[in-house]
Amino acid sequence: MTKKLNLAVASLVLVFLGTGCVSRGNDPGWEYAPDMYYSKGYEPYNQGDSFTLNPHGMSMRTPVEGTVAVGKSDFHYSLPNTGEGYEAAATQVVTPAGIDQIDTRGKYMYEIYCSPCHGASGNNDGGVFKKVSTLKPAWKGYTDDYIKNLPEGQIYHVLTYGKNNMGSHASVLKPVDRWRVVKYVKLLSQGGNSNAVASNASTMDSTAVAK
Amino acid sequence: MNISRIKMWALAIGFTIASPILSQAQPNADEGKKLYEANNCGSCHALDKKVVGPALRGVHERRSEEWLVQWIRNNKKFRESGDADAIAIYNEYGGAAMNIFENLTPAQVLDIVEYIKTAPAPAAPKTDAPVGPAEPQADPSTKYILLILVVIFGIVLMVLGRVKNTLRRVAAEKDPSEGEFLGDNRKWYLKMLPSKLANMNPTVLAIFITLAVALPGAWYGYKFAITEVGVQKGYAPTQPIAFSHKLHAGELNIDCKYCHSTVEESKSASIPALNTCMNCHKGVQATEKYNGEISPEIKKIYAALDYDPQALPGKEYGNNPKPIRWVRIHNLPDHAYFNHSQHVVVGKLQCQSCHGPVEKMEVVQQWNTLQMGWCIDCHRNTGIDAANNNYYAALHDKAAKDLKKNQNNSQYFGPDGKVKITPAMNGGLECAKCHY
Predict the structure, then answer these.
(1) A6-17 pLDDT, tens per residue?
(2) Which of A54, A98, A193, B407 is the most buried (most CB within 10 A)?
(3) Are B71 and B86 within 8 A, CB to CB?
(4) CA distance A111 to chain B (A)
(5) Minimal Cβ distance to B254: which of A116, A163, A210
(6) Chain A interface test: which of B334, B343, B366, B371 (most A C-beta within 10 Å)
(7) Is B228 in Cβ contact with A168 (below 8 Å)?
(8) Which CATH superfamily, name and number, covers B24-118?
(9) What does pTM read for this prediction?
(10) Which residue of A has its CA nearest to B323?
């Protein structure tokens, strides 16, 4: 009897040991040579107490205030995030040269960054607005006169700083992409069909728009 | 006298005619509620808390009706007319101008004010709901305590068994009649075996049993070592904020790239900045699920940003933000290079092809092994969209031409009989592509 128990207990212990090393839940499982798996050098988005020189031990640092990285001069935007800044954007902020046409990149970026709330054709019927209707703005959709008559500079200003319930999209959209989105929003506000640019979407060359 | 009597009659008739009109002009709260909703007032205002604009309850006590009508219909014109109160509130809210509602008639504005006046006060928080601390969650360490207990009990049982045998042996030495109980483990285990095996030569049997146990054991150990050790498939750690991809990517249908925005630009797909969370969660606080309180998970975002939702615009963010320490799930060793932008932009891969159905995961887990064999399989079998790639056109054409001469290389041809260009043919199996 004792021996049968012994056998049973031993096999139970083996099963426990075996399952203990498989990764699941909070347990990453057994590792061989963890110093090869986990980089000693800084990886993007790492955070560790050993990075004593960086704020909060993050591997990334914010640029020194007042500096502009090479090739990022278009990130500079001088208008302040105030009512006056918004008013001034109507006349002072103009579409830069080279972004005078609606291209597929604008539609593509719109569908990633705008359509979750504003819907694929700008009717304020995206998934988020459907679920949380209190987020909806006072205007009904892009074809509303309010958006139709909104100067492009102000749309750019809102993308950069946000307005009311909408937050700033400056950290996810590069300035050049913000302008492409502005152009696409204007197309939708004039009742433009998204198919107008969809026809040549397949020829989108992602290397051509990288800037 | 006559004239005044006529005047009186005229007044009386006038009142009779006007009275229904006057009574209609009484502000109507139901009408106001409809207008409040139709014009999405709620996107910037709530009755009892500051949202984008100020809380509205009691606004009729703070301002005159005339003031409200002018402000709501066209606050810009009103401010420009030099009204001190209008300019003051505009500046207090950091110059965030209210929209213009000239589509509303003054009577309609008063309907809305009437609705605000009569709107029921919020229900007091339910006191009968369990307010105490949440159910204690299963601590992961309990599993280990159980395991340790099982091991300890096992050892205790074995020791007790030994003690018992020793006692029996001692007893047998004193009393030979106890001899049949003499603890002989070998005999007992042999009895467990089928009779044919039990009658075998003990040496042969020993070798046989050793092989029968050792070979599967070795096979299991080998399989374990190559498929489990250092392979974190299924790893699903608890994150500091219980963010649900199932809700955000699945139900709300938000594109993966909305948050992981650098995936097309960079080696890393990026952990979104809290700024991205605030694009929605400035307004979304899920209070309806938490008895009027802000959701505890959303509160963590606010705490990390040192953000006070009730502070005035411009003063919402404090000076003590702390980044959130998300737990890394997918980890490639230092000596293997992987670039997201390369695979998503040029390779046109869907996120799900490596990360699995994340839009259905409440807690994200590592879906694939991320082992080298897994990379290589994909590089061997996935076709490249060679037709739309001008940069490699010459190379692809040459490959297609050269391979036609050698029909033995059937693995390079797709089911349509045409050459299938794979990453492997483009040098995707070179060691130094990933290890350098």
Answers:
(1) 666 666 666 655
(2) A54
(3) yes
(4) 8
(5) A116
(6) B334
(7) no
(8) Cytochrome c-like domain (1.10.760.10)
(9) 0.71
(10) A56
